[in-house]
Amino acid sequence: MKFPDLGEFKFVSKILDGVAPLKNEAPVYRGWLSAGDDCAIFDGWLVTKDLSVENTHFRLDWSSPEQAVEKHIVSNVSDVSSMGGRPRIALFGLCLNKNWSEETRNRIAEAVSQGFERRGITLIGGDTVAGDVGMFSTTLLGTTDGETTLLRSGAKPGDRVYVAGTLGKSDAGLWILMNHPEEVSRFPRLVEYHLAPKICEDAGVQLVRQGVRGACMDISDGLSSEANHLALSSGVSIEIDEEKLPIDPDVLEMCDYFGLPPLKFALNGGEEYELLFTSDVTKSIYIKSNSINHEKIGLKCDEIHEIGLVNSGCGVYLNNKFGGRISLNAQAWSHL
């Protein structure tokens, strides 16, 4: 049967064109977990949901339609990765801006279809509407390879604190777009990362394989906030060394050029989607991933940086480069 020759049906048909096949693969471990982590767990399925709203999370005068869709998909995939899981199935909701051109609509439909398909994520349904602003909404289901799930509550005194990837990129790219758009071509990597971040999408799976059993979450609201989430959820204190923070080299160059403090971008920059985790594994940890075609997506999966230590007590503290120790308060972006 063909879709009826009606606008909405034809549009949905474009999204479902080339969809990844649905596989009859149940979760290996049938666990349950309520709200409070990056994903809930429903009878073994990792479940997360993220929204991306036009002019809040993306702007089409800055982004291409493809970049806006890619950023939205990454924001969901990183939640599953942070739990040590792989994304499998998606439900996608789309509010089309009534003022978008037909070309923009078609590019978004193609980007959604291809974005899920090349990750092997099966799109099984959703909804489409039209409104005054555009919005993407995804409910993403994933699975783990076994019983181990990385939780925010898994940190223990004596664990080391790690970041997978470098810090500050997305916030620095946003700062350029907002304050010096004429300098976009000087720092294209930072701007590109903000508009369509590229992360190691199975980093969590690789960490579990290498024996990590600590706490983990993705850095969506800034390191200062996520570290406080981990400390509170685990009932511990976290100590971070300023000199160990892996501030991205391009962020350092940008801050030097504009006379800005790089620490602000490293600690408080959101939409990073890298992983913050703890582990008692004392040897060097390097992610070597072969499970998806990272070369195709343009990802690097071997950057792991030790930034601090988990202690007993409560709170998060920063050991600054002058030898002082200050309380590091959460400075998350609020959508309300």
Q: What does this 3D model show about the protein?
A:
The chain is an alpha+beta fold. It is built from ten helices and twelve strands. The protein folds into two domains: 7-143, 60s Ribosomal Protein L30, Chain: A (2-Layer Sandwich); 152-327, Alpha-Beta Complex (Phosphoribosyl-aminoimidazole Synthetase, Chain A, domain 2). The strands form two sheets. Strands 7-9-6-10-8-11-12 form a seven-stranded mixed beta sheet, with helices on both faces. Strands 1-2-5-3-4 form a five-stranded mixed beta sheet, covered by helices on one side. Strand 1 (40-42) and strand 2 (45-53) form a beta hairpin. The termini are far apart. Mean pLDDT is 91; it is low at 290-299.
Structural key phrases:
alpha+beta; 10 helices; 336 residues; 60s Ribosomal Protein L30, Chain: A; 5-stranded mixed beta sheet; Phosphoribosyl-aminoimidazole Synthetase, Chain A, domain 2; 2 domains; 12 strands
- Total domain units: 2
The general outline is: globular
CATH superfamily of the largest domain: PurM-like C-terminal domain
Q: Structural class given helices, strands, pairing?
A: alpha+beta
- H/E series: HEEHEHEEEHHHEHEHHEHEEE
What percent of residues are in strands? 15-25%
Report the sheet with the most strands, covering strand number, pairing sense and barrel closure: 7 strands, mixed
Work out the number of β strands.
Answer: 12
CATH topology of the largest domain: Phosphoribosyl-aminoimidazole Synthetase, Chain A, domain 2
Rg to the nearest angstrom? 20 Å
Structure annotation, total helices: 10
Distance between the termini: 45 Å
Global mean pLDDT: 91
- Highest-level CATH class of the largest domain: Alpha Beta
Q: How does CATH name the architecture of the largest domain?
A: Alpha-Beta Complex
Helix content: 25-40%
Low-confidence stretches: 290-299
For the biggest β-sheet, the strand order reads 7-9-6-10-8-11-12
